[in-house]
Design goal:
The chain is of the alpha/beta class. It has 2 domains: 3-272, Alpha-Beta Barrel (TIM Barrel); 345-399, no CATH class. The chain has a 9-stranded mixed beta sheet, sandwiched between helices. The protein has a 3-stranded antiparallel beta sheet with strand order 12-13-14. A 3-stranded antiparallel beta sheet has the order 15-17-16. It has 15 helices and 17 strands.
Amino acid sequence: MTASALPEAAARVNGDDGTPGFGVYIHWPFCAAKCPYCDFNSHVRHQPVDQPRFVEAFRREMETMRGWTGPRAVTSVFIGGGTPSLMQPETVGAMLDAADRLWGLSAGIEITMEANPSSADAKRFAGYRSVGVNRLSLGVQALNDADLKFLGRLHNAEEALRAIAMARATFPRLSFDLIYARPGQTLESWETELRRAAGYAADHLSLYQLTIEDSTPFKALYQAGKIPIPDPDEAADLYDLTSAVTAELGLPAYEISNHAVSGAESRHNLTYWRYGDYVGVGPGAHGRFSVDGGEKRVTIAERHPETWAKKVAEKGYGVVEEEMLDQQAQGDEMLLMGLRLAEGIDIARYEALSGRAFDPARLAMLQAEKLVEPVANSRIRATQAGRLVLNALVAELAA
């Protein structure tokens, strides 16, 4: 079955009402192996992780953050990592129970959990579903064994397809990730792989161009000339092809790298891109939530898992960096996030949040250059060309 053949109503678990929302992000930092392209906060442990110890730390940090945020209506929960599918279902259930006790999790809200095909197990998937997870995000990354090996993945293509089938049979909603712009990948080979992927997708695909991140093994290989990546023109062609094919197949881009059947957009990620509030719980987690006076509080947690747990045991939280964002900083962040979306940003909300209006002459210039366009007279969004130069576009609009 292709994505375009799926009924839209079947995907509507997220309850998106168009508002920015309030999300709870839970970071499980442990992985079976570190991928060479990854700069996320993930850690390999060669002995079994003491899951009850970490559950207690997650509970305690959530309690502290509930005191910071006050009562809020949670619109989504996202359990990321790391590899959350290395957790026992009881661990996931205990953390969701804590979030429900502290903030309240309304029936039917989106609860997403990341998983890797190498740790996919039917019994464990059923356990996650039984404790409330209703959306799975699978880190597939490629559909051929050679590229999976290059990317350092622990699964092969057959295991990936088996995990996709298992997830589709277990969860109401499914997304999986692919990385493109891989060395040697042509427009033709990527289109073939993308069309194949769309045939397996339930309602959502996340499609990321390979980037070379600092402090990763790929960075050293790239600097040694061993990893060729596309030049800007080739990258733009790959991006344009991705947008065209997914739109044709019923999974149009609603954000630069994310594609979904109508109504199946990630509610949690929309909270980020709409510049809503969220708490980040766990090692290395980031949070951003509004406080009295119109400022927004930024929290960044200790990255090392055991050090984080020790800090939580001592003082109730593992946050090691904090910042208060004023109106101008919030406006700049809203631009950077919101212009990634196909729906763009609400002009009135931007002006109220930032305390400033767009320069009409500058806005007219960017429209003339076909980098931004109006939407229904109340919003603006980046065009396809504008998304390719997003940082420069944000700098122009914020000037």
